[in-house]
Amino acid sequence: MAAVQDGQLNLEVEKDIKTEITNDGSGNINANSSSPGSTSSGGKSKSPAGSGEDQQTLLAVLQFLKRNKLTESVDILRREAGLSADADDSPVSESAGAGSGGVPSVGADGGDANSLLSRVSIATPVAPPATAPPKVVAASGGEDQPDVNVVLSAYSQQGDPVLYPLYYNGLKKFIESVLDCHRAELSQVFYPLFVHMYLELVYNNHENEAKQFFEKFSGDQECYYEEDLRILSSMSKKEHMKGNETMLDFRTSKFVLRISRDSYQVSCLGKPEMSRSLWQLTITYRMLSYQLLKRHLQERQNNQIWNIIQEHLYIDIFDGMPRSKSQIDAMSGSLAGEGKRDANKAKVFYGLLKEPEIEVPLDDEDEEAENEEGKPKKKKPKKDSMGSKSKKQDPNAPQQTRIPLPELKDSDKLDKIMNMKEATKKIRLGPDNLPSICFYSFLNAYQGLTAVDFTDDSSLIAGGFADSTVRVWSVTPKKLRRVKSAADLSNIDKESDDVLERIMDEKTASESKILYGHSGPVYGISFSPDRNYLLSSSEDGTVRLWSLQTFTCLVGYKGHNYPVWDTQFSPYGYYFISGGHDRVARLWATDHYQPLRMFAGHLADITCTLFHPNSNYVATGSADRTIRLWDVLTGNCVRILTGHKGPIHSLAFSPNGKFMASGATDGRVLLWDVGHGLMVGELKGHTDTIYALKFSRDGEILASGSMDNTVKLWDTLKAFDDVELDDFTAATGHIHLPENSQELLLGTYMTKSTPVIHLHFTRRNLLLAAGAYNP
Amino acid sequence: MAEERRPKQCTVVLPTESMKAMAESIGVGQLQEESCAALSEEVSYRIKEIAQDALKFMHHGKRCKLTTSDIDHALKLKNVEPLYGFQSQEFIPFRFASGGGRELHFYEEKEVDLSDIINTPLPRVPLDVSLKAHWLSIEGVQPAIPENPPPAPKEQQKTESTEPLKAVKPGQEEEGSIQKGQGATSAEAKGKKDGLMRMKPRSTHELSVEQQLYYKEITEACVGSCEAKRAEALQSIATDPGLYQMLPRFSTFISEGVRVNVVQNNLALLIYLMRMVKALMDNPTLYLEKYLHELIPAVVTCIVSKQLCLRPDVDNHWALRDFAARLMAQSCKTFSTTTNNIQSRITKTFTKVYNKCWLDDKTQWTTRYGCIAGLSELGPDVIKTLILPRLTVEGARIKAVSDGPVVSNIDKIGADHVQSLLLKHCASVIAKARPLPDNVEQYRADYGYLGPMLCSHVVKARAQAALQAQQVNRTTLTITQPRPTLTVPSSLTLMSTRPGTPTQLSPPATKYIVMATSSGSSSTQQVLWMASICKISRTLKLSSSAVANSAVDMMKLALMRTATGKGDPELPLLQRISSLELPASEIAAQINA
Q1: Minimum mean pLDDT range among A38-42, A463-467, A669-673, B381-385
Q2: Residues 695..714 of A with a Cβ closer than 8 Å to B: which?
């Protein structure tokens, strides 16, 4: 059909094209696109410009075709349109989606042939020049005009599958031939291009070609994309594409690349698909890369690649020096490329909230707890620290009332006092003063231990198990007791001093309690800060709230219909966050059965969740290899952190809220500056998934625990000191990571055969670790 | 690397035959080849998809092994009903069968007699989950306690001993090697720069004070008079993970001890030393291969020595020979490799000695006994080739002793022992090798004097074997337990039901007090504490003389304090430990010098 159509349309302009293009007579669809000027002149007069809406566009096109007596094409188009209406990943809606999205204006123009033609002239001024230099806009505008076919069937139609490897190879050669400083940046294009070309082949039922294409070029891709490539390789038929999540991710989201302006211009120069005016500019490039290819081939190829770039890639252009290979490698790896730079521009109030002032009855407490030694000394520093803390309001801290927080109860105040007292006895850690590690092994767990949590005061341990149970242990001599039944409670004298003691049922005292209620493995577990509640999330799609007074389930929060991988209480209690297979993180309040906020944006399972110490933000790590930071108040995503090469399984905030650490299946710990949204460190050393991360109470030491049966300690003070943040790096986010993992590693402690799945620093900076012994 | 794997991933699909077989199993015959191919691709894709989802569950389950439940959960994600009947973790119920040009994997379901199940005793209830706490690290140092992995894993010890030459880059050389830049060695330096230098790594051969104390305590306990203490010391040798540094001392101690005590005919001490060898061999964390050259001669001495005790007629030195022979066989089994050929070398040694006594009537019965014991422990093959052919001669010799008129009591006893030994070991071998019937005359013809006795033993052995076989047959009806059998590591059996926090840390000076008090309460604890303190002090660099001195002083002080504080019961302890003071100060003096 294309041939007929093209032939007629091109008649007028054939003359001037022929001078340049020798082989155009082949009547390929793409020949059409290579002769933009002609179509525009022909179409402009005939059809009035349609609106941007698809339906109208379609009608306009049909009209146009009819007028030209192209009945065959009309039929085909009708049929296609009818087909495409129901399937959501079908060509038309796809292209429409691409068109209407906030892509470089060029993409939007792809909408309809008729209007396009008229719009070409306007397109240049209208297009926002913010992202691309004017040249590019003009060029791509010109390029887009004749693509009626592309509009109609996005992925399909793209010509001869045999040529794909050639196209790809051509680009590869070109990129290999450019200057070194641009090469690293430009080669970022390879992976997304590869993926989309492969998908196109698969989509168009060129199964064998797709397979060959894959075999030929999959080896060129960066090794950290191996996981995705494996999924991709299993997808060899069009039918498979429907309902495949990875596939959907690729098609619905744009792969984000950051390229410096210089490099981008080079790459634009490399595209001779642009309008005639640019033709000469591209000669140099052509001399370099395509001496052996015929001209029409070049053009078709570049159209192909250019289309993919426009439809599926988002190129974030920045001014300044191109980045080096290592810089790019540090940031790439996620499912959808890097985060856009403006995604990390929002201000994050990472400071801590002001602690409420509590009068500590210093003297008598001291006398009770401490012996006569050292008593006078201890009072002074305490007062000082109290004073300094309460006076200064951190400029980076959010307002105290930014989100409503629960009021402090008397028991909370008591706990705070205890906390402060303990804090004075805290051991100051450092490279010369490493913490002692006490390891809690779960014996006879039959590989069934899936989650562990400690209370902040380290008095209780909870474990979630694959057999759907939750178990709570007391690690202090104080046994776990249930509150008496209602009938018994009514008999108690409520005026007595020890009423709190009396309500407990002595008969139920035991070291551990089992909580039954879930119907699937328990993957996440979290104590409330006041130790009255316990949260657990499970494969059965629910999050349950348990009372540690009665040891019964209080609420089952339903909302996630799929496994909930993690849940976490806010440091101030009341709120909690959960995230799971459905890719949505939900923020709940314990007294609401429906979520308060839903954080959507991740492209794959949310694997871990964590509250910022000031409770105003929530961090989520995902299997799409990104970390996102969400604002609890607005529900917006305020940070997208890329750099991990595997699903993220652990997160930790430094106690001052300024930094974050994350661990993934790739065995690396990455350190982040939350305020700037920058990666500031990389800690290599583990050989397997990191399931546990924790900063010491003062933030000097980061402990990481992994599947490889080790606990490692890292010097974070040095790690954060070594990074110098000048304005430029802060603005562009291109940081040179020092290769100093070995210097930062303070210690490695092997267990016998126990994977470390949780770590916790006690208030005195003793490190507790937990895992199931796995003989 | 990954390139090689990926094409495979792309292409692996189920064979079309499987599709046919499955179609037939649900009653669809004659499936077309094309449909089979299409089906198999579709099925393979779905299977891969499910496997990928199942992996997620494995990761979140914090495991390295995919289980059937992961697959069930992945199916549930896709709204597919899980498969039932595959719940057990270890058991894969598929059997393979081929025939008629087809290969099949099928699910074997046996008919089970319910009464059998009802009548079998209930399996043991699996232990409940429990928590146990231990110190993974104390102020940055990992204590050498059984809960922690050994400080130097066996592999490391092995590489250290087998590859003593480490590749060292020039420039990384430690001080003491040739200084670079000197004119005379410029050519050498050039050579070095070309490639990596191979250098012997520096290893410390000094033991810290605490290790020396431990060594002394252990060796004293092992050869001392108190049996309870010896048992504890041997237990410590067999389980303690941090002994590798003391291993050379132990092996020298044993070999020297055997040399001296064989001359002095001190049977008891020899037995103690052999028990030490056994304990060392039982310790899974030690790489013993390095010291076999000292241990094996000692053991062999205890097997074949002419005289091991002062009164050979009364003392049971035969038991020592048997024990040592078993040790020898065990070490042959564990340490023999194609390079060291221990097994064949040992066999040769025994045979040589044996040949000598075969030829020479004057050889002691004790040596003869030792040879036979040593050989027969090495297995039925050795017995068959080396001992059976000599039974006739041996029988004649025994006959001569027992029938002969004038013999010393010692010879008679020796002959008796050899006879019973031969009967014991040979009977079972003959029972297996020789066809029925057991004819006494035939036996006499074949084996001479020992023939009739052998015959009766063989008959007994056969009866016993038949009885055992019967029992085996009867017990085959046991059903597989769905739960995996319980495996509790020996080191972790002492778990407490309540997960208490381990003893609070105390500053370094008081650590010694803790050690001293605990040594008073129980000597195993003492040993453990000593071992862990050895580690601590080593990393605290207590090796320098001044610190060593002060450590000894501190210990004494601590002991004094505990002793005086606790009163009389501790006094003997104080005396005992203060007797250690001398060697410790000696060491300090040595270091000073």
Answers
A1: A38-42
A2: 707, 711, 713
Bridge-based pairing of strands A767-772 and A437-443 is parallel
Q: Distance between CA A465 and CA A542 in Å, rounded? A: 15
Burial of B403 (C-beta count, 10 Å sphere; 0-12/13-18/19+): exposed
Does A205 contact B at CB distance below 8 Å? no
Return the minimum-mean-pLDDT range out of A166-175, A268-277, A460-469, B552-561. A268-277
Is the Cβ of B101 closer than 8 Å to some Cβ of chain A? no
Specify the pLDDT at position A422: 83
Rg (CA), chain B: 33
pLDDT band of residue B159 (cuts 50, 70, 90) is: low
SS3 call for A627: strand
Chain B residues touching residue A649 (CB < 8 angstroms): 59
A461 interfacial to chain B (CB closer than 8 Å): yes
Please, are residues B230 and B222 in contact by the beta-carbon 8 Å criterion?
A: yes
**Closest partner CB to A473 (pick from B149, B495, B499):** B499
Contact A437 B137 (CB under 8 A): yes
The structure tokens listed for A279 are 């033709």
The strand ranges marked E within B29-118 are: 94-99, 102-107
CB contact under 8 A, A581 and B64: no
SS3 for B74?
Answer: helix
Chain B residues in contact with A565 by the CB 8 A cut-off are: 60
Q: CB-side exposure of B524: number of CA atoms within 13 Å?
A: 12
Q: How far is CA B58 from CA A148, A540, A605, A707, B66, in A?
A: 48, 16, 14, 12, 6
> Do B129 and B490 meet the contact criterion of CB atoms below 8 Å apart?
no
Separation of alpha carbons B454 and B444, rounded Å: 9
- Least confident window among A464-468, B195-199, B214-218: B195-199
CB A254 within 8 A of CB A102: no
Whether the per-residue pLDDT at B448 is higher than 50: the answer is yes
B60 touches chain A (CB under 8 A): yes
Question: A721-729 long-range contacts, Cβ below 8 Å, gap at least 24?
Answer: A722/A681, A723/A673, A723/A680, A723/A681, A725/A673, A725/A676, A725/A678, A725/A680, A728/A320, A729/A678
Number of Cβ within a 10 Å radius of residue B341: 12
Whether chain A has a CB inside 8 Å of the CB on B64: the answer is yes
Helical H runs in B185-226? Answer: 186-194, 209-223
At A631-671, the pLDDT tens digits run 999 999 998 888 888 899 999 999 988 899 999 998 899 99
CB contact under 8 A, A215 and B134: no
Q: How far is A275 from chain B (nearest CA, A)?
A: 39
pLDDT at A758 exceeding the cut of 50: yes
Residue A608's Cβ-side half-sphere holds a number of Cα atoms within 13 Å equal to: 25
Q: CB-based contact (8 Å) between B127 and chain A?
A: yes
For residue B483, the chain A residues in CB contact (below 8 A) are 446
The nearest CA of chain A is from the CA of B83 a distance in Å of 16
Across the interface, which of A218, A231, A751 has its CB nearest the CB of B52? A231
Complex prediction ipTM: 0.72
Mean pLDDT of chain B: 69
Strand, coil or helix: what is B407? coil
In this complex, the residue of A233, A444, A767 whose CB is nearest that of residue B129 is A444
DSSP at A590: T
Cβ of B14: how many Cβ atoms within 10 Å?
16
Question: Which residue in chain A has the smallest CA separation from B151?
Answer: A750
Helix (H) or strand (E) holding A366: helix A362-369
Beta carbon pairs, A and B, within 8 Å: 187
CA distance B445 to B431: 17
